[in-house]
Amino acid sequence: MKNKVVWLLLGATVLAAAAMWWRRGTPTSDIIYFAWTVPLAVAVCVTAARQPARRNRAPWCLIALALVLWLSGDGVQTLQYYAGYVPPFGLSDVLWLAGYPAMAAALLMMARYRAAGRVRGVVLDGLTLTFAAGIAAYVYFCLPIIDEGFSTLESVTPALYPLGDVMLLAGVLMLFLSPGRRGGPTYLMLVAATLYLLTDSANNVLMYVVHSDVSWDLDGAVLLGNCLLAAAGLHPRRGELTEPGRAVEVLHPARVLFLGAALATAPTVVLTHTGLGPGGRTILMAATLACIACVLIRFLQAVRGLERTQAQLAYQARHDPLTGLANRAAFTEHLDEDTAGVLLYLDLDGFKAINDRDGHEAGDAVLKAVGQRLTAAVRSSDLVARLGGDEFVIACTAADVTYGQDLAQRIVTEVSRPVEFGGRQLAVGVSIGIAAHVTTSPDARRAALLAADEAMYAAKHRGKGNWVVAA
Question: Are residues 209 and 257 in the same domain?
Fold first, then answer.
């Protein structure tokens, strides 16, 4: 569906919602609601059925289920209303309450797909805010209903709706906090779920202030939320709702503000609400401890993540990204600290021809194979480094020229073995210069490196696969 059609659908729904509000409390309003919502529910169901992959289909099936359950509940209550009796608890409540976990699960599933292995931080942040919202919902919505003195069923049923809103809030928060692209479909989904939350919250508050039929005034907002869901499913870029986000996680300042507000919820409730019984205080304490635990775990996770990032950056600063060998900076540092020993300077023979003939991928495969063979040929105390291109250097601590000659011969033999790539045999040779440094002076070691470089060029002049000891 084109973006223009999505906007036309939203505009027409706004007009329908205005007409419902104008004719609220009359059969005309109900006719408009069902005449508009049923096609929207069908559109969401069709969207779920047409999703190409299970990854995209499962969340939309849950959204379609939630919308059908809510619409069925509306239908049952409407029939009961015109029949002259709406029970305190009935089938409509069962259908409505069943829609909350379905919608919350859909939003959580989208957040998990978008986080792509990094969902733990999103879940912890979402749970922290959810626990805080649960505290407020229990104290300000659930307790007043329970304290009215109705029967157990009449008291529990209305109190379940704020808890359903808390579940829905958890899904909204986790989708909002998850990484990934936030285009039209994401905002349509977030606004739709937020509109359901605001409508329910307004209904819970206004029913005590205005009158019991306040839901008639809010049916238009519910219709608009249904339309936003359908528009998100019909949007041409709806795939972004389940696509993995970028690898770099950014801590938005608003997230820190939300977490701080969550931690302040319990003290605020204690200061503003008196008369909590033992049960209420126990629930408040449990929710507060859970909220604090989520924040502490999140903090620990952030610190551990920072440590891993620092370790990764330190490794990347000292290692060649292609071969995994030490790079020039690491070798220079090692050379400044090294004791007496021998240096081998290596340059591959025939490598440029492979790069030109077979491509850079083939050249990279050769460099990786050479790096592995060099590492296998030396002692654990020796350092193998790639200086760049097809040049390598080996620093052998506490070794003499004889050891360097034996090592050079082994390397010539190992490197000359063909490298398998794409069904072809790629062969290179190696020319090696050997130089010893018998003092611990950094200048002497640098001079030895220069001598080994010159000896390597002398080996190249003799032909492929030779080594020369510097004079």
Answer: yes
- Looking up residue 425, the CATH number of its domain turns out to be 3.30.70.270
The answer to whether residues 50 and 127 belong to one domain is: yes
In this structure, is residue 323 part of a structural domain?
no
Is residue 434's pLDDT more than 90? Answer: yes
Given 263, 285, 311, which residue is the final one in a domain?
A: 311
Which residues form the domain of 289? Answer: 3-311
Same-domain check for residues 284 and 394: no
**Which of the four pLDDT bands, split at 50, 70 and 90, describes residue 413?**
very high
Give the global pTM: 0.61
Tell me: do 279 and 157 sit in the same domain: yes
In a shared domain, residues 86 and 215: yes
Encode the chain in three state secondary structure.
CCHHHHHHHHHHHHHHHHHHHHCCCCHHHHHHHHHHHHHHHHHHHHHHHCCCCHHHHHHHHHHHHHHHHHHHHHHHHHHHHHHCCCCCCCHHHHHHHHHHHHHHHHHHHHHHHHHCCCHHHHHHHHHHHHHHHHHHHHHHHHHHHHCCCCCHHHHHHHHHHHHHHHHHHHHHHHHHHCCCCCCHHHHHHHHHHHHHHHHHHHHHHHHHHCCCCCHHHHHHHHHHHHHHHHHHHHCCCHHHHCCCCCCCCCCCHHHHHHHHHHHCHHHHHHHHCCCCCHHHHHHHHHHHHHHHHHHHHHHHHHHHHHHHHHHHHHHHHHECCCCCCECHHHHHHHHHHCCCEEEEEEEEECHHHHHHHHCHHHHHHHHHHHHHHHHHHCCCCCEEEEEECCEEEEEEECCCHHHHHHHHHHHHHHHCCCEEECCEEECCEEEEEEEEECCCCHHHHHHHHHHHHHHHHHHHHHCCCCEEECC
Q: How many domains does the chain have?
A: 2
Q: Is the pLDDT of residue 113 over 80?
A: yes
320 assigned to some structural domain: no
Most confident segment among 245-259, 284-298, 399-413, 443-457: 399-413
- Residue, of 166 and 330, whose pLDDT is higher: 330
Q: Would you say residue 367 has pLDDT above 80?
A: yes
